[in-house]
């Protein structure tokens, strides 16, 4: 047997096979033994007809498919391994010669991991933004925490005011006729939240506890109920009780209650430091993404369709797993969103193609620069993953196969490659 490999393009090769006639004749004999039980020959019990008799009636081609499959399974894998071909799709097979007493000759055209033409990837100039944390942002964060400590206090000595929470009964009608869903008792409503029909909350301001009143409102033209859309309505309401939100004083005692700090100034300084750390992380992530985008834009690669489709498959599986964790099925989700599978896959295509290109380009850079990872870096990634499994690092590593270690090492190498690009970029 002999094999040759011809490069057709940057992402496709042709493997040519020339199989000795004796080997093909041997495969034909095995094919006969496998196929004869399915062939009917008059005068013979099924499976007992001689090979020559079957070939005389149906032609020797009746065994070609089976014989070819037997040989293909035996020679294709070793040939791919021998020539170090990284196959990414099923081969397209073309048989040139087949028959008893002849060498079997065929070719396989197959898509392979494409070659990447790297453009500039060291020293790319990328804009880097620095986010400044303002006093207003610090105050807003403090107020957010202050609101969490707020309490609702009953109001007895005044009428409803903006910002109060009211417990009320109401009954709505259109042209004097009550409508479905328009009546309730003991409902709570925060005045100013604008959760009720426009004009409803504003007319409650000034009402006293126990007071009843008719509120005249108009349903919006765009309303979920066509029967009520744009209609004038009257709601008879009664105020049962009023509460107001009381915020804690913004002082040192407040800081002591919600933090480990003794003074409000110390607490605010810590809030600022945390906001600045978050902003810096966002800025760094944005810069990293921008560097990778620039490197990808400078590189050229012809991606086989099969690689994109496989990436879409992977992304859809991940989404399906997330749905399953919420008790939903992908088929039901597509039905609810009015999509079929083709449309759903199309929505992932741009992202999938970008993801595949990023993987190929970064892999090419890793090879070009000889980027590797230390054992300590791999262990750090495993240590981050271990808590998700409920095992210690050593317990988890004890269950690993060689492939598992290679997976974490590949991740560590990728992290180092990204760091290499960022360290060598020019921040503007």
List the helices and strands and how they pair.
Blueprint (H helix, E strand, L loop, with lengths): L1 E8 L2 E8 L1 H15 L15 H8 L5 H19 L9 E6 L6 E8 L4 E2 L7 E2 L8 H14 L2 E5 L9 E10 L2 E14 L9 H5 L7 E7 L13 E15 L5 H7 L5 H35 L1 E2 L3 H21 L4 H7 L4 H6 L2 H21 L5 H11 L7 H6 L3 H23 L1 E2 L1
Parallel strand pairs: 6-13
Antiparallel strand pairs: 1-2, 2-4, 3-4, 5-12, 7-11, 8-9, 8-11, 10-11
Helix pairs in contact: 1-3, 4-7, 6-7, 7-14, 8-11, 11-14, 12-14
Relevant terms:
Alpha-Beta Plaits; Chitinase A, domain 3; alpha+beta; 428 residues; 14 helices; Trigger factor, domain 2; four-stranded antiparallel sheet; five-stranded antiparallel sheet
What does this molecule look like?
By secondary structure, the protein is of the alpha+beta class. It is built from 14 helices and 13 strands. Strands 7, 8, 9, 10 and 11 form a five-stranded antiparallel β-sheet that branches. Strands 1-2-4-3 form a four-stranded antiparallel β-sheet. A two-stranded antiparallel sheet has the order 5-12. Helix 12 packs across helix 14.
Brief rundown of the structure:
The chain has 428 residues and is an alpha+beta fold. It has helices spanning 21-35, 51-58, 64-82, 135-148, 200-204, 252-258, 264-298, 305-325, 330-336, 341-346, 349-369, 375-385, 393-398, 402-424; strands at 2-9, 12-19, 92-97, 104-111, 116-117, 125-126, 151-155, 165-174, 177-190, 212-218, 232-246, 300-301, 426-427. Helix 7 packs across helix 14 (402-424), helix 11 (349-369) packs across helix 14 (402-424) and helix 12 (375-385) crosses helix 14 (402-424).
């Amino acid at each position: 047997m002999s094999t040759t490999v011809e490069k057709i393009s940057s992402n496709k090769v042709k493997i040519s096979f020339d199989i000795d006639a004796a080997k093909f004749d041997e495969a034909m004999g095995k094919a006969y033994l496998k196929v004869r039980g399915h062939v009917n020959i008059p005068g013979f019990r099924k499976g007992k007809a001689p090979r020559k008799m079957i070939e005389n009636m149906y032609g020797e081609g009746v065994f070609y498919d089976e014989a070819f499959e037997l040989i293909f399974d035996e020679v294709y894998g070793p040939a791919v391994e021998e020539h170090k071909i990284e196959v990414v799709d099923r081969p397209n097979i073309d048989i040139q010669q087949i028959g008893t007493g002849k060498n079997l000759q065929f070719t396989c055209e197959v898509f392979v991991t494409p070659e990447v033409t790297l453009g500039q990837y060291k020293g790319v100039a990328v804009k880097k933004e620095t986010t400044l944390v303002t006093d207003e942002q610090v105050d807003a964060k403090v107020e957010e925490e202050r609101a969490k400590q707020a309490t609702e206090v009953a109001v007895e000595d005044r009428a409803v005011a903006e910002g109060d929470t009211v417990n009320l009964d109401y009954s709505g009608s259109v042209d004097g006729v009550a409508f479905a869903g328009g009546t309730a008792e003991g409902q709570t409503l925060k005045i100013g939240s604008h959760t009720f029909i426009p004009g409803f909350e504003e007319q409650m301001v000034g009402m006293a506890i126990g007071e009843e009143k008719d509120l005249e409102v108009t349903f919006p033209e765009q309303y979920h109920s066509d029967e009520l859309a744009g209609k004038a309505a009257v709601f008879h309401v009664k105020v049962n009780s009023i509460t107001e939100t009381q915020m804690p004083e913004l002082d040192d005692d407040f800081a002591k209650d919600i933090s480990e700090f003794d003074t409000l100034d110390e607490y605010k300084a810590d809030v600022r430091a945390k906001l600045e750390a978050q902003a810096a992380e966002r800025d760094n992530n944005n810069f990293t993404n921008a560097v990778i985008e620039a490197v990808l834009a400078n590189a050229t690669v012809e991606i086989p369709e099969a690689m994109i489709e496989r990436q879409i498959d992977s992304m859809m599986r991940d989404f399906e797993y997330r749905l399953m964790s919420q008790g939903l099925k992908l088929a039901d989700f597509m039905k609810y969103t009015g999509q079929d599978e083709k449309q759903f896959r199309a929505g992932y295509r741009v992202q999938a193609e970008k993801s595949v290109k990023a993987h190929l380009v970064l892999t090419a850079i890793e090879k070009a620069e000889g980027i590797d990872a230390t054992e300590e870096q791999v262990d750090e990634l495993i240590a981050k993953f271990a808590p998700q499994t409920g095992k210690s690092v050593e317990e988890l590593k004890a269950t690993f196969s060689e492939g598992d270690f290679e997976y974490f090492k590949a991740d560590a190498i990728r992290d180092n490659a990204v760091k290499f690009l960022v360290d060598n970029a020019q921040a503007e």
